[in-house]
Design a protein that fits this description.
Its EC number is 2.8.1.6. Pfam families: BATS (PF06968), Radical_SAM (PF04055). This is Biotin synthase. Belongs to the radical SAM superfamily. Biotin synthase family. By secondary structure, the chain is α/β, with parallel strands linked by helices. The protein has a single domain (about 10-320), classed as TIM Barrel (Alpha-Beta Barrel), CATH 3.20.20. It contains ten helices and nine strands. It has helices spanning about 10-15, 20-35, 80-90, 110-125, 135-145, 170-185, 200-210, 240-255, 270-280, 300-310, and strands at about 40-50, 95-100, 125-130, 150, 185-190, 190-195, 220-225, 260, 280-285. Strands 5-4-3-2-1-9-8-7-6 form a nine-stranded parallel sheet, sandwiched between helices. α3 (about 80-90) runs parallel beside α4 and α7 runs parallel beside α8. The longest helix has 16 residues, at about 110-125. The radius of gyration is 18 Å and the shape is globular. It starts with 9 loop residues before the first helix and ends in a 13-residue tail after the last helix. Bound molecules: S-adenosylmethionine, 6-(5-methyl-2-OXO-imidazolidin-4-yl)-hexanoic acid (DTB) and iron/sulfur cluster. Iron/sulfur cluster binds near residues 54 and 102.
């Protein structure tokens, strides 16, 4: 049984980051194999159910009202349209349907509409995930009662770098929502973005914060920043492939039973890069041609990649740690 540690020191994490590449990947892949079938990948699909006009100022985001990104605002989607999209995602092999809203936090009235969506998507036999911004403890309990499986709430970067990427909330606000979600017994999906001007110590610190949560997140999405024209980060320097792969490997070692998702940014990654990320411990992707507001690889090329890598999608429907 692999031990789930909650007491990593920053030094220990930084020492993992600077291991020789092959040693790091060997260690990460060995842990991956002990805990998961290495040829299975969990497939999630995303839908933006409310677009743009967000009052937050996240410097990377197409949906913040503070930047002119040319994005058309759309109010909360009608439930029938959401169900159509969920059905299509399910037909394409997705097992989890994630619905995102560009909110700082949901009003109770909007939450009621989202609850109907969750219940109807669950009735279709899919796992549900929503990402709606900050929640009160009461709202988290209401979502649990509605049958929600996962809540996504990314910490995005290190505590130390946080005020450089958003000023309308703080790192502790993020942790508070995660605590409310865990108190309500909803599984947590939380990770971050690479390419927000952070350094290796920030990446180590971010992973440390995730692994120090009361329960490791069930899913850890690691996004490569999708640079959005019109945002302050449109021209920021991206991390190298080596830095990105190392972060996946260290996440796998620190959170051995969590599903690590190779999330946004795959359109910029070649097949070999993605294959190495899977070897390093990533075992989930967002599948489908759209993320929230930006493009994802087309499904045919993902299918081809799975075939070439021998990834068994049928069995991927019930990815469990072993
Ligand atoms: N408003 C809610 C919130 O911030 O939690 C939910 C939606 S928000 C778009 C969900 C997550 O998407 C963010 O926390 C961030 O990690 C990720 N994200 C947003 N824009 C991104 C971008 N341009 N590149 C990569 N990830 C991005
Ligand atoms: C996550 O970690 N990444 C997803 C999901 N959770 C909500 C969002 C990626 C967004 C990429 C930029 C966009 O499409 O707007
Ligand atoms: Fe709003 Fe979420 Fe985008 Fe931040 S990341 S601007 S909170 S939609």
């Amino acid at each position: 049984m692999t031990q789930q540690r909650h007491n990593w020191t920053l030094k220990e994490v930084e020492d993992l980051f600077i291991l020789p590449f092959n040693d790091l990947l060997f260690q990460a892949h060995s842990i991956h194999r002990k805990n998961f079938d290495p040829n299975q990948i969990q497939i999630s699909s995303l839908l933006n159910i409310k677009t743009g006009a967000c009052p937050e100022d996240c410097l990377y985001c197409s949906q913040s009202s503070k930047y002119d990104t040319g994005l058309e605002r759309e109010k909360l989607m009608e439930i029938d349209l959401v169900l159509q999209q969920a059905k299509q995602a399910q037909d394409n092999g997705a097992t989890r349907f994630c619905m995102g809203a560009a909110w700082r936090s949901p009003t109770d009235k909007s939450l009621n509409k989202v609850i109907s969506m969750i219940q109807r998507v669950k009735d279709m036999g899919m796992e549900t995930c929503v990402t709606l911004g900050m929640l009160t403890q009461k709202q988290a309990f209401v979502l649990k009662e509605a049958g929600l499986d996962y809540y996504n709430h990314n910490i995005d970067t290190s505590k130390e770098n946080y005020s450089n990427i958003v000023t309308t909330r703080n790192f502790q606000d993020r942790l508070n929502t995660l605590e409310s979600v865990q108190n309500a017994n909803i599984r947590v999906c939380s990770g971050g973005i690479l390419g927000l001007g952070e350094d290796q110590t920030d990446r180590a610190s971010m992973l440390r914060s995730l692994s120090n949560l009361a329960i490791h997140p069930d899913s850890v999405p690691l996004n490569l920043l999708v640079p959005i024209p019109g945002t302050p980060f449109e021209n920021i320097k991206p991390p190298t492939e080596n830095e990105f792969i190392r972060t996946i490997a260290v996440a796998r070692i620190m959170m051995p039973k969590s599903v690590v998702r190779l999330s946004a940014g795959r359109t910029k990654m070649g097949d070999t890069m993605q294959a190495v990320c899977f070897f390093a411990g990533a075992n989930s992707i967002f599948y489908g041609e759209q993320l929230l507001t930006t493009d994802n690889p087309n499904t045919d090329s993902d299918q081809d990649l799975f075939v070439r890598l021998g990834i068994n999608q049928k069995q991927a429907n019930n990815l469990q740690s072993v």
